[in-house]
Amino acid sequence: MSHGLSMSIAMTLFLLITSVVFLFLTGAWTNRSLDTALAINRYLARVESAIALGSTAQSAPEACDTFTVEVENTGEVSVDDFADADLLVEYTNTSDNKVATRLAYLDDWSVTGITPDIRDPNDLNPGETATISFTLSPAAKDATSGSVIVVTALGISDSIYFSCSIS
Fold this sequence. Notes:
The chain has 1 helix and 8 strands, in the order αββββββββ. The chain is an alpha+beta fold. The strands form 2 sheets. Strands 1-2-6-5 form a 4-stranded antiparallel β-sheet, with no helix packed on it. The radius of gyration is 27 Å and the shape is elongated. The N and C termini lie far apart (105 Å).
C-alpha cells in the first residue's frame, strides 16, 4: 500500500513540475514572439522611412547664431514626435574652437512650420517639408561653414552644410 501511495505522490509531483515548466516556457515563447513581431514592425517602418535635408539659411544677417533647415519626408512613414528626434551640429565658434554637440529639442531647436500641412497637423507626413529653426551657443564664426545632422526616432538621418556670413 505504501508503495502505491509513494508512486502516486511521485507521479503527482512529476505532473505538477511538468505543468509549471510548460506554462513558463509557453509564457516565455509568447513574450519572445511578441518582441519579434514588434522588432519586425519597427524594422519595416525604418525601411520605409527617409528624409532629405533641402536647404539651410542664416536667420539674421548680423549674427551667426540662428539658422533654419528644410527637412523633407521622402519616405512612406510619418514623423509624429519630434521630441524623439536629434539635431546635431558641428561648426567653428567665434573663439576658433571646434564645436560638435547635440542640440536640445525646444531649448535649442524647434519645428517652425510644415508645408503643406494638410493631413495630420503637426506630423511630418510623406511629401511634406518641415522648417526647423536652430540656435547655436556659442555662435558660429563669420565666413565659416558647419554641418547639421537630423536624425529621426527610427534612426533615419541626413546631413547638410550651413554657412555663416555677417554682412
